[in-house]
């Protein structure tokens, strides 16, 4: 009977899950699965430890199964495949830890209630991160659950990188820049010494380009700045989120267009970004295949903003040694990487187009002053490591 750690990673457009055998210091992956395209073209797939596809299901284009539908589907799959396994712990990605939670935390009912107060700060994620924790607390109170936060990795940033220029009493209430995708950046920082030792020790910008997208400046593996702020709507344009916006726009929407907080929330989180600009889709694959002018402009704007933020993060690092691409778009869209690297020529990035076409791992030329890389992220492994450490002695 193998002892299993289950990991659940609810993103904005996908739910990823992983089973790890809890043996020794490093969790050993047994199965990896996901439902992606929750609101566009849901696609369920599972692979075994060797990476071979073992299960697959597709829903018709235009189907919306959402997070609740996907969790039900995944739970049913896991119930049918639990033979020979003993569930000893569950690790969850929880997007917002606020001021209070800056490290992985065992969750009980009291912790869950405090995490629920952060729902307004991450409306696309936090409810879906907490829902499976709540269900399992009732159904399996014997199994420890660990919340691993997207915000925690960034708490090491200098004070100036975390502050808005707001009055002190507002800042003291926790209105500050938190940054997200921290589990992804922490994983990249942990694996970079093997992939690119010089980059790992130096000044690196990591671009996590998925349905949610952000960038992080790493100095010797520690976060010093990031593009996301108080919430995960800040920074780069994303699948359905607008990214950085002049706060005056919000006031204008309320005063002149008579929107209220909920309609503004819906606009900036769910109807903007690639979807809003293109009027076509939030899915980069669809946009890249389209000849539509607005679809092209959406991709253009995404790339332009990445290039601008790169300059800003390089300034925070006082120079740049390496650029790393990761997540759905970063790992699989050579065209986006090509365009970003060319716009970063002034910083010393020289692209190797042939290496870029096959997803790297190194996509810059040997002479490039700044090296560029494709490094697949693994938030699930990072969560499993934290879960193992946080439950040591209990499982
Ligand atoms: N082969 C591909 N080419 C371009 N974009 C891709 C490809 N595969 C996935 N993507 C894009 O990656 C994004 C989803 O990234 P992912 O990191 O899985 O998202 P999430 O934020 O939900 O975790 C989508 O925009 C999708 O279109
Ligand atoms: C924080 C965030 O945007 O996450 P995701 O990319 O999974 O939507
Ligand atoms: Mg994600």
UniProtKB/TrEMBL annotation:
InterPro entries for this protein: Ac/propionate_kinase, Aliphatic_acid_kin_short-chain, Aliphatic_acid_kinase_CS, ATPase_NBD
Q: Which cofactor does it need?
A: Mg(2+); Mn(2+)
Catalytic residues of the enzyme: 150
Give the site residues for Transition state stabilizer.
181, 241
Pathway linked to the protein: Metabolic intermediate biosynthesis; acetyl-CoA biosynthesis; acetyl-CoA from acetate: step 1/2
Reaction it catalyzes: acetate + ATP = acetyl phosphate + ADP
Kind of enzyme, top EC level? transferase
Cofactor note (record):
Mg(2+). Can also accept Mn(2+).
The EC designation for this entry is 2.7.2.1
Cite the entry's keywords alphabetically: ATP-binding, Cytoplasm, Kinase, Magnesium, Metal-binding, Nucleotide-binding, Transferase
Q: Where does Mg(2+) bind?
A: 9, 379
Keyword Ligase assigned to the entry: answer is no
Tell me which residues bind substrate: 93
One function term, GO molecular function aspect: acetate kinase activity
Binding residue positions for ATP? 16, 208-212, 283-285, 328-332
Q: Which domain of life is it from?
A: Bacteria
* Keyword Zinc recorded: no
Cellular location of this protein? Answer: Cytoplasm
Q: What function does this protein fulfil?
A: Catalyzes the formation of acetyl phosphate from acetate and ATP. Can also catalyze the reverse reaction.
The family database entries (HAMAP family) matched by this protein are listed as: Acetate_kinase
Concerning its family, UniProt says:
Belongs to the acetokinase family.
Assembly and binders: Homodimer.
| Name this polypeptide is given | Acetate kinase
